Amino acid sequence: MQRRFGALALFAILLLFLMPLRAEAHAGLVRSVPAIGETQPTAPAAIELEFNEDLDPSFSTVQLFDSQNTLIDPGPGAIDPANPRVLRLPLDGLPNGSYTAIFKLRSALDGHTTSGGIPFGVGVAAATTSLLPPPGT
Prior knowledge:
With about 140 residues, the chain is mostly beta strands. The protein has one domain (about 25-130): Immunoglobulin-like. The chain has one helix at about 1-20; strands at about 30-35, 40, 45-50, 60-65, 70-75, 80, 85-90, 95-105, 115-120. The protein is elongated. The N and C termini lie far apart (about 60 Å).
């Protein structure tokens, strides 16, 4: 009986070491259009945020604020049907100014949530105050 228990225990330990381990990490921003801190001569047609994991469409949003923390576009944006790692917010044109795209998302892989901001400027440099998220976010 002890021999059988010992063999089972050894098998269980070996199995733990041989099983692939899944990394538990938050979805990280890989690329953004506009880029962080970028000044664009004209308004972008959309804000596009690409992450390193598939996003949960029921939770992932992006909103646009100006340099006075006024909500310009409430979003929520949408996951790109061709790429579940991309969150897009179409824009109808923006006047010159400094803006911040604030995103909140959940990874479809591990359920972890992430939030952050992408400051950028249209015709002017991104304001340093746009590096801070609006109150309550």
